[in-house]
Amino acid sequence: MNALEFFLPQHARPHGVDLGDPRSLWDHMLEGLSDEQIRLRPSVGLNSIAWIIWHTARVEDVAVNLVVTVGCQVFDDSWATRLGVDRRDIGVSMSDADVAELSSRLDVAAARSRRAACSAAASGPEGSVNWAFMRPMLRRMRRAATSSEAAVQA
Hints:
This protein is an all-alpha fold. 62% of the residues lie in helices and 0% in strands. It has one domain. The chain has helices at 3-12, 25-30, 35-39, 49-68, 77-83, 96-105, 108-122, 131-153. The longest helix has 23 residues, at 131-153.
């Protein structure tokens, strides 16, 4: 099994692809929730579901679409306009005020569409994997695993 053969089924699970269901796990989780409920922050310091949708799509777009595949993100200026949010980061250092603002401004329907677009792009064919980047990284991971195993056995 190579890295791609391992990755693609793992990636497909939360997106519903391997379940024979055209709706994703996200669709099932969000079913029946209003935009108001999706924007709600349960408490100060906690993130809204809207922020979580935005953040997970952003991470997938950067980590998978930019790094693992052909090097193109789904996020661009047209998505920024549709979302009502122009942040280019992944949100890990956002302040409470930043999270509150994003949660209130984010177009929830557009965020759900963007999450699906990021997932679809990341599930592309094997030929879309950026092997020039991935092969050296996989070699480093194998060397590290081998040296770690040797250190544990010593």
